[in-house]
Each structure stands twice: as structure tokens, then as C-alpha cells.
Amino acid sequence: MSEEKILRKPEWLKVNRTPLDSYSNLHSPLNNGNLHTICESGMCPNKAECWSQGTATFMILGDICTRNCKFCAVDTGKPLPPDPNEPEHILEVAQKLSLKHVVLTSVTRDDLPDRGANHWAKCIQLLKNANLTVEVLVPDFDGNRDLIKIVADASPDIFSHNLETVRSLTKQIRTKATYDNSLHTLDIAASFGLTTKSGIMVGLGEKFEEVIEVMDDLLNVNCKILTIGQYLQPSKNNYPVKEYVIPQIFNEYKKIALEKGFTYVESAPLVRSSYHSEKIL
Ligand code: SF4
After folding, report:
1. Which CATH number do you get for residue 118?
2. Atom 6 (ligand 1) nearest CA
3. Listed residue (54, 27, 56) closest to 275, CA to CA
């Protein structure tokens, strides 16, 4: 078996750590409400930046996923039933932190007959009723129109679903999800009049032209908001980084995407799906 070459992390990916104290006010309400943030589960490199500003992405429907994507740090297994009090807990924490904009995401709940769509809708409605703006970063709901409609009817301000990678690598990187199903999910959401958004990670072995193809595919389903960031391997058991893409290439992706017709693009090594989400509105 050939040994994987371990790449050294370049300077542009080194993040200044903010001391815990500056965001400890977020820890206590999260713990009290038994909530999870993707900032922690996803080992996001921007955690310090976002948390120090009182911004966080809440992960609903538990922290155990029914899928097992090769890039993802979330645990796989048999999830617990949804917590019926979770929507209220999120609102409570958001209000304690005086947030104006909240990002929600979740693990994929293939175990639930509605894939968690009704729980999603309750969380969105509660936050919207309290005058917060909401971006949802959702799983694919199996591309089921009825389930996506349940979420759409709750009127999130942004409906986000990530393609995660280029078409040719999808099978290797994601489990169960397909590239076309994800495009279909975005297409359905746009057909309900929602503003849609998607993102990919680069550095997984994709070619430049394949990233351009992602842009065209997204525009074809009326998705005009795009994020592109560097993939970072969360643990030795995850898919290895194939390349650290240089910042100039990220700039080039951004330029091309805007020229092609995207209305908002975040493309830089440390960009993650919900990075600067509030700026889109
Ligand atoms: S479906 Fe989402 S949460 Fe689950 S393993 Fe894949 S990326 Fe992680």
C-alpha cells in the first residue's frame, strides 16, 4: 500500500487563536440549552472570529449523523429522537446573545420519515417570528419536493445546500448524497421562490475546469450565491488534503463566478459555508 504524502499547512491557513474568555459568554447558554454548534463539531477555523463577534451556526437535530461523508468530523451512528424543546432553546440563546441573524444546519436524518423537515420548519418559524433573519444550511431531503416545501413554507431568508465538491469526486467524498440530487434540491427550493446558496471545498483533488463546471451547474438551477473554501482534514481518519490551493486561485474563482452571474461569492482559503452569511442579506 502506498503511503499518502502529508502536505505541510501553508502560512495563509494559520489562524490566530482568540483566548477562550472572549467568547465564553456563548459557551454557557449553549451548554444550558444542550445545543450544538457546527463551529465546534465541524472544527471550523473561523470559530474564534465568529464567536468573538457573538455569531454562531447552530446544529439542530442532534450531533450524530446517519451518513458518513469522508470529509466530515461529525459522528455517525443512530441519532436520538429530535428534542421538541430545541426550537425554543435556540431562540432563547439567540436572544440572550442579541443575535439578529442566525444560521441553522443539521446532520442528515435519514432515520426520520420526514427527514427532520417539520423540526426545521419549527425552528425557522420561531426565529422569524422573533424578527431574526435566518439562513438554513440543509441536507438534501432526498430531493423530496414535499419535504423541501415544508422548509420553504417557513420562509428562511437563505436556503443553502452544499454540493461540497465537484461532480467527479462526489461519490468518493460524500455518502448517499449525489451531485444531481443536490442540484435538484436547490432547484426545487428556487422554484418555491427562495434565495438559494451553495458551497464547495477545494483541495480534494478537483481540476480547475471542474470548479467552473460547478458554477455553471449552479447557475442552471438559479443558485447565485456561492462559497468556496479550502478543505482541511479534520482527523487522520478523514479524506486527505490533496492540495493547498493558493489564494490567487481563490481570487480567480471569485472573479469568474461574478462574471458568470453569481450575485454574491465568498472564495478564500478559510471561507466556510456560513462565513459572513449576514452580509448576503
Ligand atoms: S451528511 Fe453532513 S453531517 Fe452527515 S456526514 Fe455528511 S457532511 Fe457530515
Report:
1. 3.20.20.70
2. 69
3. 56
